[in-house]
Write a structure and sequence with these properties.
- The structure is a single chain.
- Helix 1 packs antiparallel against helix 3 (95-116), helix 1 packs across helix 10 and helix 3 (95-116) packs parallel to helix 10 (353-375).
- Helices cover 43% and strands 18% of the residues.
- By secondary structure, the chain is α/β, with parallel strands linked by helices.
- The N and C termini lie far apart (48 Å).
- The longest helix has 25 residues, at 3-27.
- It has a 6-stranded mixed β-sheet with strand order 1-2-4-3-5-11. A 4-stranded antiparallel β-sheet has the order 8-9-7-10. Strands 6-12 form a two-stranded parallel sheet.
Length: 397
């Protein structure tokens, strides 16, 4: 029996216990920085399976690193795990399946890696949906957790089996203005209106939308505009997402945002600041060869791959990882009928029997992809070469 057959046998034998974990996480949805239960059940399962586990990493109390190292030298394979839910609706993005899928793939690989050589890790990365201390993969990159990694793998629940797609870079920023309160009727001349400064900023950002490329998406809300109509607002606040094709383009837009805030402050006399309120999210750097390897493994498991090329219009912090190492995030089909992410239909699919059983083939395909790279040094070098070329191209846009 070869390595892939042994992986298949292990996953088939253990799939039911991992389905139970996915259902458990689905029943207990937790948002960014509060995924205590999901972090505990996944990390405990990995510890039970023989991984060395550390919780509260990279500045994220609900993040974890699970690792198993063979005595034989070899590449380092990382499986990325997400397990946060959406505010209000729960697991309508299927992250209850995502974290379990990556964990099962890693455990299956761990059971043969002593004979192959190398190291297998699972990085539990909170808050992919954003929120308090969100987009943890950016922290994992910044804190050096990817420095010695050869490749990173994960797969996201979806309505079809598609390959990785490009995604937009985004800066989640908070704009704050500080003024001076005064009675709006008796002594308005004594006040400095922070809301006026924020509205000037909001309007200037609207005007900026006329002069950006078609890939740019700018959207925001005013989160604080004052306390009472008869008091000159001393504090006003807004949150914006600044998105574009690449992080280089987003940084260029940030300069314009910074200047708008400075200008509004000068016009009104208020003090203005603009800063990230969670990690910046990078665009996805594609490594087509790595996706091709995954696709072949999906097809060898008798599942179809949808090769339709569709540009992603969202953002994911998996992009931050893709700027450092070759990375894939294909989707795996969890519903017979078409479904859209962040909806009740998607939420229901992520705990359906069809959706739960999709973990079986997707975890196999991820583990098989890792096997191909661990066993074939030339193939891995070609993947790394292609990734380097893709990164250079993106950085020159």
């Amino acid at each position: 029996m070869n390595f892939k057959e042994r992986i298949n046998e292990f996953i088939d034998k253990n799939i039911e216990s991992y389905k139970e974990i996915a259902k458990d996480i689905h029943r207990n949805p937790e948002v960014s920085n509060y995924e205590f239960h999901a972090c505990e059940v996944l990390s405990n399962k990995l510890k039970e399976e023989g991984f060395e586990v550390k919780v509260d990493v990279a500045g994220h109390r609900t993040g974890f690193v699970a690792s198993y190292k063979s005595k034989k030298e070899g590449p380092v394979a990382v499986f990325l795990a997400e397990y946060d839910a959406l505010v209000g609706i729960g697991h309508a993005c299927g992250h209850n399946l995502f974290g379990v899928n990556s964990s099962l793939a890693a455990v299956a690989l761990k059971n043969v890696i002593d004979e192959i050589g190398g190291e297998v890790r699972v990085y539990g990365t909170p808050g992919e949906e954003g929120g308090e201390n969100g987009s943890a993969k950016g922290s994992f990159v910044r804190e050096g957790f990817l420095d010695d990694v050869d490749f990173a793998l994960c797969a996201h629940p979806g309505s079809s089996n598609k390959l990785s797609t490009r995604s937009l870079a985004v800066h989640p920023v908070v704009i704050k203005f500080y003024g001076k309160p005064a009675h709006a009727a008796a002594s308005p001349e004594e006040g400095i209106n922070a809301l006026d400064a924020l509205i000037q900023t909001y309007n200037a950002i609207n005007a900026l939308r006329q002069h950006v490329t078609s890939d740019v998406r700018i959207h925001g809300i005013i989160t604080k505009g004052g306390d009472a109509p008869n008091i000159v607002p001393e504090y006003a606040e807004a949150k914006f997402f600044i998105r574009a094709n690449t992080k280089k383009q987003v940084y260029s837009l940030r300069e314009k945002f910074d200047n708008i805030v400075k200008g509004a402050a000068l016009q009104t006399g208020a003090t203005g600041t603009i800063e990230l309120y969670q990690n910046a999210v990078d665009d996805m750097v594609l490594t087509p060869l790595l996706d091709e390897i995954y696709a072949k493994n999906v097809e060898s498991l008798n599942h179809e791959v949808d090769y339709t090329d569709k540009k992603g219009i969202g953002s994911s912090d998996v992009g931050n990882v893709s700027y450092v190492v070759p990375t894939i995030q294909p989707t795996f089909k969890i519903s017979i009928n078409p479904i859209i992410g962040h909806t009740e239909d998607f939420k229901n699919a992520s705990c359906s029997e069809y959706g739960l059983d999709a973990i079986r083939f997707s975890s196999k395909a991820l583990a098989h992809t890792a096997i191909d790279l661990l066993l074939d040094k030339e193939l891995l070098n070609n993947v790394k070469k292609q990734h380097k070329e893709a990164l250079e191209k993106v950085n020159n846009i």
